[in-house]
Amino acid sequence: MIIYGKNPVFEFLKSSPNEINELILSESSGLTKDPEIRNISRQSKVKVSIVEKNYLDRICDNQNHQGIAAKVKDFQYSTLKAIFEVSALTNQNGFILILDHLEDPHNLGAIIRTADFLGVDGIVIPKDRACDVTPTVIKVSSGAARNIKIAKETNLSQLIDNLKKKNIWIVGADGESNQSLAQQDFKNMNIAVVIGNEGRGLSKKIKEKCDFLLSIPKSGKVESLNASVATGIFLYEVGKKRSC
């Protein structure tokens, strides 16, 4: 896998240099003389290649690479068990995010970054008909995809049933719900927030399994929010009310 952009690559250099097979810099970017890059790559014995900009353009599919890219090991997905262990280690109530077939890599990347910032234990995505963790997702997440545990599950409906058996409450984001996120209390609860597809929202089966279907209270004229923005609001509100 090739990742690109200053923030994602710097994050890799700092946290997981052993996963970098090759660091690639554009000769015209000025990064070849960056002292931080030179020091970290030297200490970690990372192979560094200086190339022409058009080579980086080609291997990064003409995306905005900012003059830097890295060949890294393929993204390693986590397990549900590892996600559960996060809350066990911190002695906190569980806080999980489930994404019901999101398709846009920019949304996924932004959501991963927000979830990491707000202290979510882990994220679960479906194995099929959904966006995977791609180089674009890693770039948009600014490296957060390597900080938070992300698991893949074949059957989200079955997953929710199993979470309920572990005393985890399922909170679905539903713009059509008459119940407001602002009015719900989550104090001392294990929570899994479920966010639906960008266009279709939550699937019918997932809606039926949610303990709460909540909407974000609206004051303005815009009818809906971008999936990543809505996720950020949900995670912040739920996280705040769990700890009050």
Write up this protein.
There is one protein chain. The protein is α/β, with parallel strands linked by helices and 244 residues long. It folds into two domains: 2-72, 2-Layer Sandwich (60s Ribosomal Protein L30, Chain: A); 80-243, SPOUT methyltransferase, trefoil knot domain (Alpha/beta knot). Helices cover 37% and strands 20% of the residues. It is built from nine helices and ten strands. The chain has helices spanning 6-15, 35-44, 53-59, 80-90, 105-117, 135-140, 156-165, 204-209, 227-243, and strands at residues 2-4, 20-26, 48-51, 68-72, 95-99, 122-126, 149-153, 168-173, 190-195, 212-214. The strands form two sheets. A six-stranded parallel β-sheet has the order 7-6-5-9-8-10, sandwiched between helices. It has a four-stranded mixed β-sheet with strand order 1-4-2-3. Strand 5, helix 5 (105-117) and strand 6 (122-126) form a beta-alpha-beta unit. Helix 5 (105-117) runs parallel beside helix 9 (227-243). The longest helix has 17 residues, at 227-243. The chain is elongated, with a radius of gyration of 20 Å. The model has no long low-confidence stretch (mean pLDDT 88).
